[in-house]
Amino acid sequence: MSSILSEKDLTDLKEGLKRCSAQTIEAAIRYREHGDLDAIPVIVYGVIERYQPANSTIPLAECTEETRLIEDLGLDSLTLMEIVLSIEEVLNTRIENDEFKQVRTLGQLNQFLRNKMGGVTATPIPPAHKHYDRTHINLVLPQQPPFMFLDEAELNAETIVAWYTVKGDEHFLEGHFKDDPIFPASIVFEAMGQAACLWLVEKVPALQAADAKSRQILFASLEGAHFYQKTRPGDRLQIEQKLIRLREPLAIFEGTVSSNGHRVARVDRLVLAFGGQMPIESPDAAVPAASEVPGASEASGNGNGQ
After folding, report:
1. Could you tell me if 110 and 151 lie in one domain?
2. What per-residue confidence (pLDDT) applies to 141?
3. Of 286, 295, 272, nearest in space to 208 by CA
4. Is residue 83 part of a domain?
5. Short-list 198, 205, 197, CA closest to 300
């Protein structure tokens, strides 16, 4: 493709990029006149630079392919939509919402646009880690402070990693133990359960579809629980849970807790019951591996639980 822009088209293009760098405008002209796909990342960078808020976590100059558009660059959904509209105008294309919904990082955005404009049928973009801060977790879980022991979390297809910093003002530390506060092992295991609960309410379609008041997730059993190290105020717990098996009404996880690089606790088998049912016999029977459950890895959304 090679077509010199008319004066009007050139004027319109520059007007659409009027707060962008000269390098961005040159790349846009190069793409429009010669179809140069290598110009796309320069265009994307320039358009994002135009809209990026001053309080972004990562300066644009330090971005990598893994940089997240929302969490790292500080773009909200409305700003992201403005960026998409600007890119549509420059590339003279239309981006449907369904096409764009899995784009989370700068690298994914560049690859998506390169594939789209190059006529390549792209393979599905693997879902990025979904990050939750304490405010969002507080909206999702029914446990509320002072009995919520997750500060932030990242969800993946069959895993969750969560963090909790022992504050020192937890009410039970007044007596556990007096003048020697130690975070109780039972609460460490509760935090593991809350992390598994968060994964369930975000990943299981039946829980997503249920009315918030009807969602219920309960401990069914805990096996192979080991505690290795005491934790105290100021320690940051890293809680990792992996789904092993899933079939309503049961979900089975295994997990660990660490702090400052040292293991704190491990659970070989943590079983949760959901859907309002509590098992009265062994949860071993007829529960398939997580990878055998259709939709277990793909589903996502918000809900309440445990």
Report:
1. no
2. 83
3. 295
4. yes
5. 205
If one counts the domains in the chain, the total is: 2
Identify whether residues 102 and 168 lie together within a single domain. Answer: no
Q: Tell me if the pTM is above 0.70.
A: no
- Per-residue model confidence as pLDDT tens digits over 200-222: 988 886 565 554 445 678 888 99
C-alpha span between 215 and 206 (Å, rounded): 9
In a domain, 74, yes or no: yes
Q: Work out the number of other CB atoms within 10 angstroms of the CB of residue 196.
A: 28
Query: With DSSP H G I counted as helix, E B as strand and the rest as coil, what are the percentages for the chain, rounded to 5?
Result: 35, 20, 40
**Mean pLDDT of the region 72-88:** 86
Same domain, 207 and 272: yes
Give 1's pLDDT tier (boundaries 50, 70, 90): low
Paired with 178 in beta bridges are none
Counting every residue written for the chain, the total comes to 306
Angle, in degrees to the nearest 10, between helices 77-91 and 7-16: 160
Confidence class for position 104, pLDDT limits 50, 70, 90: confident
Structure tokens at 242: 């992996």
- Say yes or no: 141 and 263 in one domain: yes
In a domain, 301, yes or no: no
Which among 261, 255, 268 is positioned nearest to 231, based on CA atoms?
A: 261
Please say whether the beta carbons of 252 and 269 come within 8 A: yes
**Do the domain assignments include residue 152?**
yes
Positive or negative: CA dihedral 292, 295, 300, 301: negative
**Domain end position, chosen among 117, 142, 175:** 117
Q: What string of DSSP letters covers 148-162?
A: ---SEEEE-SSEEEE
Residue numbers of the domain that contains 186: 130-292
